[in-house]
Specification:
It comes from Nocardioides currus. Residues 43-306 form the GP-PDE domain. The chain is built from 10 helices and 11 strands. The chain has helices spanning 17-26, 60-69, 115-125, 149-162, 176-185, 197-200, 223-230, 259-267, 280-289, 299-308, and strands at residues 44-48, 73-80, 86-88, 131-136, 169-173, 190-195, 235-238, 241-242, 254-255, 271-272, 293-296. The strands form 2 sheets. Strands 1, 2, 3, 4, 5, 6, 7, 10 and 11 form a 9-stranded mixed beta sheet that branches. It has a two-stranded antiparallel ribbon with strand order 8-9. β1, α2 (60-69) and β2 (73-80) form a beta-alpha-beta unit.
Amino acid sequence: MDGRVRRAHPDPQAQAPGREREVRRRGELSLRVSLDPVPTHVFDVEAHRGGAGLNPENTLQAFGEALALGVSTLELDVHLTRDDDVVVSHDPALADARLIRQLGRADLPPTMPLLRDVAALLEERGADPVRVNLEIKYDAMAAAELTSRAHFVAIALDAIRIDGLLLRTSIQCFDWGVLRLVGDEAPGVRRNLLVSPKYLEPAPDGPSHWFDGLDVATTFATQFVDTAAEQGFDAISPIHGSPFLSGVDDAAYVPFASGELIDRAHEVGLDVIPYVVDDPPTMAHLVRLGVDGLITNYPDRLRTVLASLGQPLPEPFPAG
């Protein structure tokens, strides 16, 4: 363990940031070294699309099973319908290629929930500690097919407020402009930057379109972290590495969520929650490096890894 003062999850009110800043300002981190093999903070177990490896993704079935298993966060994606309903779906189109943005609620599959349905499930289960990590699926490369950043953010935030999710929701996005707008409109909502090398690469006509005109230094692998902190983001969610479906036991594996990246993020006050980590050895490796959480299709595997490392586990909220 590197001795950093860790921040608790999933309750952001329990983080005691003042003390953390004081310790860092005084340069006393080296004096606060634990002999524990892994950090002992409450680890953020995020069920990717509700746990897409265990149940149909982004469905009430998946979210319900994840709650029964015991996770700290339901990770999900949202799009807007023609009538500005906030619907939970990863893809912008149905299997027949019709865009969700051009359809009404009645045109969508019955298994595709609205955000309010997820809120109702959380209330029904009494799952008060469980957070929602909501990805606004704004695509900077296909904006003409969707809607403006400002409109998408405004509707999503309205839904979060109306559905009673405001205090328990983080908003994540690959698009820096979306997260900046969220900060302007709802300063108390946590903002997590999704990131991989692909989204840092320059466009043919200039910097990455995902930067929304922001000057983001990318010469070195960790430089974007400083800009993310300057923007007031709360966390980064980097891809764990490549090949995406491999892990640390693969000789060809190249980590993106490296120890260097994790350390730099923590130095500037950002949590690190890599995605999508399904391989148990890679899970254990990242936990030992000090990440604050993991987004996974298999929260059952992550719970097993955490238990083997002596970590506390999220409370289950079964039906009935």
